[in-house]
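REQUEST ID: PR-0412
SUBMITTED BY: lab tech R.K.
PRIORITY: routine
TASK: structure prediction, single protein chain
INPUT:
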Amino acid sequence: MLKVMIVEDDIFDYTHLKNIINWNQEGFQISEQVKNVEEAKVKLAEEKFEILITDMKMPGRSGAELIKFASENYPEIKTIAVSGYKEFDYVKKSLKAGAEDYILKHELRQDSLTSLLTALSKKIKQNREDKNSDVFEESFFVDQKNILIQNFAEKLVRGHFTNKEDLKKQIELLSINFDLKNIVITIGQFDNYQELQQKYSAAKLLNVKRSFINMADEILKENGKSFAVLKNEKNFLFLFSFQENSELKINNSTASAINRIKSALKNYLNITASFAVSNILQNPLEIAKNYRRTAELLENKFYQGQDMIIYQNQNNRIDNQQFNLDIKREKLLLKYIEEKDAAALKNELENLFNDIARIKPGLSVLKMTLISLINIINTSIKEKGLNGENIFEEKGNPYQKLEKLNSLAEFKDWIITIYINLVEELKGKNNYSNLINHTLLYIDKNYDQDLTLGQVAAEIGVSYSYLSRKFKEECGQGFSDYLNQLRIKKAKKMITEGNRNIKEIVNQVGFNNYNYFFKVFKDFEGITPSEYERKSK
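STATUS: complete
OUTPUT:
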């Protein structure tokens, strides 16, 4: 299935293109509407397309500019220009920019479009076959050598070699750019790796990492005899060696190379990474022992933040101090929760995280502390009959957040936020009777369903008329208004997050009809959902 991007600002022209043929049946998968050149450039960077169909005249940059951009940056993409204008100037501009063909909108027919796409499909497949044939032999041997070098590096850091002669023979055999003196170990780790996994397919992410290693190797060649390999899923390894004996010059060369690699990674791939750097080693047989020490330095990334370089001689962890969330502090947190004292609660949590930052306990100890903090929240939610989603600000298991956050600062912000949310929920709960508290909790948990006041009354165990009267008395608005207001609030949050389109959101917040959602949204917010989406970007 070949992927096709359609760039068209006019919804009617886009819909006509979308419906003129059965794209899937013909072997093509089309994109959602892309409305302008800038949006198209972002989409091209995020996804792989084989064919680009673009209108020539759009607000802002023209289709000719997009065709030229695609031709220069994605030469494998075949482009088709579409226009309502017959003037030769448009034809000339599109073909000069690199378009394969030019179609007039009023002459667009099913048979002509199918014929053109079939011809392009054959051309794309032939180009792939030719390219694969040309590069297979070379890429096979390059990949094999890279695998052998990666295996060598793995053996080296695991202490496989017991004498320098065996080590030297392996280096010569594999033609590795590396000496056995003045060695510096650097271990790197890609930041926000879970986000990268969500952004790219497994194959694409592997290609991104390989591109990075190739880029790093080129930079390392200028800094003594050094090389780079992927270590595991999210870690990589640089091994530096220098003929130069000056410690100052070695340290400066190492720092310069790592900073250049950091900048290149950020500028060209829009990815950050953290690095741990060992002291200078004279004996290559001590690489394994020092590798383990350097790997431990990466734990400091959690405390110091991401996009950092951590040096072995600057490690300041306090190893002789124990840390845990003691009973006294736990009782204090529970006391402030019971008193609904948000200021005191925040102050105590600030002190707790200051102690953590000072002592820097091991990550396993820290994880247990964070679990205990979440347990306190969960206990309060169950005892007080609160809605956990309002407190944690998302559905799902809150403990999974431990795997998503990447630094102590992020954890601190999140923990303080959910504790303050807990206090606010407790304050709000006191304004209502038990009946209305249970009603609001049920609505909050089921707002995305087809919900009626009658259903809620039956679930709570009271009559429809009694619940309707009590609800309006205590909440100051009717059931339907409250439910719609809640659904619009949830919809706004989803729109702001930006990972779902509006039509998906309509169903996910409980509306069955887009037109009704549109009307309710505009009644509450004064603008349409699309206008809100544009403003939130």
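NOTES: The chain has a mean pLDDT of 85.
REVIEWED BY: pending
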